[in-house]
Amino acid sequence: MEVESSSLGVLPGFRFHSTEEELVGYYLTRKVCSSQEIDVEPQGNDEDQTEWYFFSHKDKKYPTGTRTNRATNAGFWKATGRDKAVVSKNRIIGMRKTLEC
Fold first, then answer.
1. Domain range annotation of the chain
2. Are strands 59-60 and 68-69 parallel, antiparallel or unpaired?
């Protein structure tokens, strides 16, 4: 039986499962610094996923206000719970916000 890999060389069954520290310290840092991104389309059964990670532009709901606009063409999110610090080497490198759609 032959196993085919995708165009990125990732084998079937591979799942993205990084830590919060890796998401902020590696992926977000490179995104902010305009490093080249890899656009990977998720595959598999989406209903099995309980957590999703997104990078999105932050803009204001009103031009002179402080509220964040969390609306998109496909819907919106609302913040739930408290923000959680993402820590690396005893230093806060980001904050995790829990959102509900």
1. 15-37+70-101
2. antiparallel
Task: Report pLDDT for 30.
Answer: 82
- In tens, the pLDDT along 34-69 reads 766 555 555 555 666 677 766 666 788 898 988 888
| % of the chain surpassing 90 pLDDT | 9
Amino acid at 12: P
CA separation for the pair 48, 61 (Å, rounded): 32
DSSP-assigned letters across all residues of 12-63: TT------HHHIIIIIIHHHHTTPPP------S-GGG-S--------EESST
Q: How far apart are the first and last CA of the chain?
A: 42
